[in-house]
Amino acid sequence: MPRTDQPDRPSSARAFSRRLLLGGLAGSAVSCFLPLRAARSASPVAAQPSSLIVGGTAESICGQWATLLAPVLADSLHYPSSFPLRMTTGWDGVTGGNLFDTQQEQATPPAGLIVPGSGLIAALRGDSRVHYDAQRWIPVFMSCQPTVAVGKVSLHRSFTSFLQGRPLRVAVSTLSGPELPTLVALDLLGMHPLPVAGYATPDAAIAALKAGNVDVIQLPFDEDYEERMASLQDEAPDNQPLFSNILPASTAPHLRLPPDFTTIFRQERKRLPAGRLYDVWKTAASAASLKAGLMLPNLSQPDLVARFRHAAQVAAAEPALRAHAREQNQTLIAGLPCATLYADMMPDLDRILALRRWLSVNSLRWRDPSAGRALPAAAQQNPN
């Protein structure tokens, strides 16, 4: 018997419903076989990306990289617009790192942080300004550049015979600054360095070296390095590159760097450096070489980390970004290889404690014994 609880529908309506059902099933079946990239493209892209915090101003190296990276990353991640950039003041990335950490509890936390290596060195040293745990960050993009120690020190002569009791003065920005690897390297060579703080720029350090206010400076191996060295040697030809702060295995063939510190140590001491202090130098040299690193929060979802790593690899292959890195004598690392390099920059607790013990012991010697206070800094101050 025909059912009487539902109204009879015309045959055309029943055919339309049948086609609609079959069409929906077919569409679902086809979507199951779409390639992953096509499925991502078909996924909703209405959400706007959250901000990238930048450990520096727009004119800083991190600011320049943020401006280049943000649109490429957003495009690779299929966002409808670029990542908003939130610049911060300060010269070493500590302000940006603190902001990145405190805003993780917000409803819309920042997507990432672009920070220089000086922010890592401040954390390694235990700087009182640091309120973040850099060991918990996940790096996905890095731009690295070595540094070079320059001076008129004869490394094969003893500290006493060369300086006649005068300390080996090394120009630094601060004790938490990127000059830390040069200080450690000179100590490994038995040169007993004495940091003189306040020289925040290469030009200020060069002027101090020319004036005889310091004996050793550290210069970035950037696009201005050769011009700076030529100008320095024209006026003070005794000043020469001493060594580069770069691990032997990471030396880039296309860079005409001075010999790395490990090679110089072997030449001067007839053996390879070893021990905990050499591990400290490797950590300091790796961290100081970081000009800009894109970090994700530690609690990021694995699929999000994988997507960011892929987007960072796409960005590192972009001609504009590669040209910018080449002009700055910087090397790009993207994706999973960043984790291996970051392990040298943020090592295990034993190496961090060794660095802090070394700083604690030497800070006593870095004080004026007659006055019982820290040696006065130079006139130049760190720019904000």
TrEMBL record:
Highest taxon above the source species: Bacteria
Descriptive protein name: SsuA/THI5-like domain-containing protein
